[in-house]
Design goal:
The structure holds 2 protein chains of 2 kinds. Chain A is of the alpha/beta class. Chain A is built from 13 helices and 12 strands. Classes of the chains: A alpha/beta, B alpha/beta.
Chain lengths: 338, 337
C-alpha cells in the first residue's frame, strides 16, 4: 500500500495517569508517534499494558479520576491547519471527534444503543455535526454498501436484529460517516468467529483503500496485526518499547518483550512448534520496576536492566528501548532459520 | 476404528433445547470415542454445539437420545458407589475464571469442599496436605501464599490454574477444558497448556479442549486429534497433522484459509476461500442434506442438498469427513452459480 509522508496525527511525550487510593498509576508513559496519511498503526500488548488508556487519552475521553499529565497531540486537517487537541474547548472537542478522529469501541454488541434504530443513530450523528437528514442517509447507505451490508435493511433495523459481525460492520461504517482522517479501533475483531473476522478484515482493507484514512488499531492479537498493520508498536507497562515497520518488528525484533510475544503465538503454517509463555505477570504500575520495566520477566536481563532505563535507539523508522537488542535480534534470526 | 477400549464414547447422540414451542436441535448424531490419555480438540464457530458436546462428555447434560458409554458400558446403568465414581471421572474446567470461582470463598475452601464432599481425604491434616499438593501441581507456588487468598486477589491465569486444580481434586480420568485459555492473556496461555500436558502425563488423563482458535488447537493437540463441528455435527475428525495439513471438508478448508497468521508475509499471501454465503443458518432452519451446502463453493445441486453426509473415509485423506462428493470417491469441483 502507498504511504506518503504527510503526518496527520503527531503525538509527543504523552503521559496519562489514574489517581487511585493507593497512589498514582501511570498507565501511559511518554508515548510518542507520528501517524501518516493512510497508515495503519497497530498497538499490541497484554491486558493492563495501557492500550485502552492510550486510546481514551487520544480522544480525551478519560475517566474523571485520570489526568493527562504531559505531552502534545498535534492533528493536521486536510487543509493543512494544525489543531492542538489537548487545548480544544469541550465544545470544539465535540465537533472535532468523529469528524476528524473517530473511534470504534470494543464489543460491538454494547456500542450500539439497543432502543433506537440504526437510522436514528445516523441522523443523530449528522445533526450533531450539522449535516442534514438527506445527506446523512445518503452517506450511510453508501457506506453500508461498502461494508457489504444490505443498506436499506440495516438502515431500518434495530441492533438486536443484526448478527455480531453485521453490528461490527455497522460500527465501522458509522465511524466513517463524517469522513474522519483517523479512526481508532479497540480490539475490533476480538470475540468474533473466524469467518466473521475474515469478512471484517476484508471490508476494512477495502474501505482503507477507497477512502485512505489512517487507523490506530489496538489489539492483543499478533496475527491480525501482522495482516493489516503498516507499523507495529509493542506496549509494555504504559510505554512503547518498540515501534517499527511491520516486517521489521516481526522478522527482526529488537526488544526482548516483542520477541517473547512472538515466541508465545502459535502459527498454523508451522508443524510442531516450540512455544514459550512469558514468566510472571505484568507489573503493578503504582510501584513499577526500576530500570527496564520488563527486566523481572525477561530472559536476557542483566544488572544494567535493573538499574538503568534503556535509552531509545533509532534505526530508520525502527526504534527500540532495550539494553540487549542485539541478542534479541540474534535469537529471532536463529528461530526463523530453523 | 480402534483396538483400544475407549474411555468415553458418544453413540448417535442427539440433543435439543426447547425455547417456548420452538425446538433447537443443537447436536445431531454425534459419534465420538475418546481413548485414555488422548488429547482431542473440538473446534468450530459459536453455536456449533461444541460446548454442549463438552457438557455431555462431562456428564453435566443428558443426551436427548443416544448413548453415553463409559469404558464400554452405558452410563445410565451404573448405580450406587460405581455411579458416583464414574461421575467423578469426568470433570469440566469452565471458560471464565472470573465467574467460575466463588468470590466469597478462599482458594483453600474452594479446593477443600470437593475433597471433603467426596471423602477424598481422611482428616484435616490430609486435607491440608492434599490442597498443598494440588496447588503445587498447577504451579501456584508457594501454596502458603495462595491458600488463604480470595479469587479477586489472583490474576486471570492464576484463577484458571485454581479451576484446573479443583477439577483434579476428585482424581478424574478426563478433563473437558471449555475455552480454558481464551480469556487469559496470549503471553501466558502457552504456560497453562503446557501444564495441562504435564498433568496428562502424570495422571494419565484424557483431555478434551474446546476452542475456537485453530492455531491453538493445532499446537495443543499436535499428537492428538481435532474434530471440526458445524451446526451440531462433526464434519471432520482425524489426527491433527492430517486435518490441519490436508483439510478435507470445505468448511475446514474455509476456516483454515480465513485465519490470520502471526507472520506478515504468510498471512498476506493467504487466499481466503470465497463462500457462497456469509450467513450461518439458524438452528431452527437447518438446510436439508449437507447443512453446509448453501455456503459451500463445491456444492453439487441435486446431490449435496438431498442426501445427508455421514462421517466416512475418502480417497485423498487419512481423516474421516462428512462430505458427499468426497465420500463417494469424487473430488471437490467449484461450480459457478
Amino acid at each position: 500500500m502507498t504511504m506518503n509522508q504527510d503526518v496527520v496525527f503527531s503525538v509527543k511525550n504523552l503521559s496519562m495517569s489514574y489517581l487511585a487510593d493507593r497512589g498514582r498509576v501511570r498507565a501511559v508513559n511518554n508515548v510518542s508517534f507520528d501517524l501518516h496519511k493512510g497508515e495503519t498503526l497497530a498497538v499490541i500488548g497484554e491486558s493492563g499494558c495501557g492500550k485502552s488508556s492510550l486510546n481514551l487519552s487520544l480522544i480525551r475521553q478519560i475517566p474523571r479520576t485520570a489526568e493527562i499529565e504531559s505531552g502534545t497531540m498535534d492533528y493536521i486537517t486536510r487543509e493543512g491547519q494544525h489543531i492542538d487537541v489537548l487545548k480544544l474547548s469541550p465544545a470544539r472537542l465535540r465537533k472535532f471527534l468523529w469528524s476528524e478522529v473517530a473511534m470504534v469501541f470494543q464489543g460491538a454488541q454494547n456500542a450500539l444503543n439497543p432502543v433506537i434504530r440504526i437510522a436514528d443513530m445516523v441522523y443523530d450523528t449528522g445533526k450533531a455535526h450539522g449535516i442534514n437528514k438527506a445527506e446523512s442517509k445518503k452517506r450511510a447507505l453508501r457506506l453500508f454498501e461498502q461494508v457489504r451490508l444490505d443498506p436499506m435493511r440495516v438502515f431500518n433495523a434495530y441492533p438486536h436484529e443484526l448478527s455480531g459481525g453485521m453490528r461490527q460492520r455497522v460500527l465501522l461504517a458509522l465511524s466513517l460517516i463524517l469522513r474522519p482522517q483517523v479512526v481508532i479501533m479497540d480490539e475490533p475483531t476480538t470475540g468474533v468467529d473466524i469467518l466473521t473476522q475474515r469478512s471484517i478484515l476484508e471490508v476494512l482493507k477495502e474501505l482503507r483503500m477507497q477512502l485512505n484514512f489512517s487507523i490506530i488499531f489496538i489489539s492483543h492479537d499478533l496475527a491480525v496485526a501482522a495482516e493489516i498493520a503498516d507499523t507495529i508498536a509493542t506496549m509494555y507497562a504504559g510505554e512503547f518499547v518498540e515501534m517499527g515497520p511491520v516486517r521489521q518488528v516481526f522478522y527482526n525484533p529488537r526488544h526482548a518483550y516483542t520477541l517473547s510475544l512472538l515466541n508465545a503465538a502459535p502459527r498454523l503454517s508451522v508443524g510442531e512448534e516450540e512455544l514459550h509463555s512469558i514468566k510472571g505477570s505484568p507489573p503493578d504500575l503504582i510501584d513499577p520496576p526500576s530500570g527496564c520495566k520488563f527486566h523481572e520477566r525477561c530472559n536476557f536481563a542483566t544488572d544494567i536492566c535493573q538499574h538503568t532505563v534503556p535509552p531509545i535507539e533509532r534505526d530508520g523508522a525502527h526504534q527500540v528501548a532495550c539494553h540487549h537488542s542485539d541478542l534479541v535480534r540474534k535469537e529471532r534470526a536463529e528461530v526463523l532459520n530453523k | 476404528m480402534t483396538e483400544q477400549q475407549s474411555l468415553i464414547e458418544l453413540r448417535h447422540v442427539y440433543r435439543s433445547f426447547e425455547k417456548g414451542r420452538v425446538e433447537f436441535p443443537v447436536l445431531q448424531d454425534i459419534n465420538l470415542a475418546i481413548r485414555p490419555k488422548e488429547v482431542l480438540c473440538l473446534v468450530g464457530e459459536s453455536g456449533c454445539g461444541k460446548t454442549t458436546t463438552g457438557k455431555i462428555i462431562a456428564g453435566l447434560l443428558k443426551p436427548s437420545s443416544g448413548e453415553l458409554l463409559y469404558e464400554g458400558e452405558n452410563i445410565e446403568k451404573f448405580r450406587g458407589k460405581r455411579r458416583a465414581q464414574v461421575r467423578r471421572a469426568t470433570q469440566l474446567v469452565h471458560q471464565d475464571p472470573f465467574s467460575s470461582l466463588n468470590p466469597s470463598h478462599t482458594i483453600g475452601q474452594i479446593l477443600g469442599y470437593p475433597l471433603k464432599r467426596h471423602r477424598m481425604v481422611k482428616d484435616r491434616v490430609e486435607l491440608r496436605r492434599r490442597i498443598w499438593e494440588l496447588l503445587t501441581l498447577v504451579d501456584l507456588t508457594p501454596p502458603g501464599d495462595i491458600v488463604n487468598k480470595y479469587p479477586h486477589q489472583l490474576s486471570g491465569g492464576q484463577r484458571q490454574r485454581v479451576s484446573i486444580a479443583r477439577a483434579l481434586t476428585v482424581d478424574p480420568n478426563l478433563i473437558v477444558a471449555d475455552e480454558a485459555v481464551s480469556m487469559v492473556d496470549v503471553s501466558i496461555r502457552i504456560g497453562i497448556l503446557k501444564m495441562l500436558h504435564n498433568l496428562r502425563d502424570v495422571f494419565d488423563l484424557s483431555i478434551v479442549l474446546i476452542t475456537h482458535d485453530l492455531a491453538l488447537a493445532k499446537y495443543f493437540a499436535w499428537e492428538g486429534r481435532i474434530a471440526v463441528m458445524y451446526l451440531g455435527r462433526i464434519v471432520e475428525i482425524g489426527r491433527t497433522p492430517d486435518v490441519i495439513g490436508n483439510p478435507a471438508h470445505p468448511y475446514t478448508q474455509a476456516l483454515l484459509s480465513a485465519v490470520p497468521e502471526a507472520d506478515p508475509s504468510i498471512t498476506r499471501s493467504k487466499e481466503p476461500m470465497k463462500l457462497r454465503s456469509d450467513e450461518i443458518p439458524s438452528l431452527t432452519a437447518i438446510p436439508s442434506g449437507c447443512a453446509f451446502h448453501p455456503r459451500c463453493p463445491f456444492h453439487q445441486p441435486g446431490f449435496c442438498d438431498v442426501a445427508s453426509p455421514r462421517l466416512g473415509v475418502t480417497k485423498q485423506h487419512q481423516q474421516n469427513v462428512a462430505c458427499l462428493p468426497l465420500n463417494s470417491g469424487g473430488e471437490l469441483v467449484q461450480h459457478d452459480s
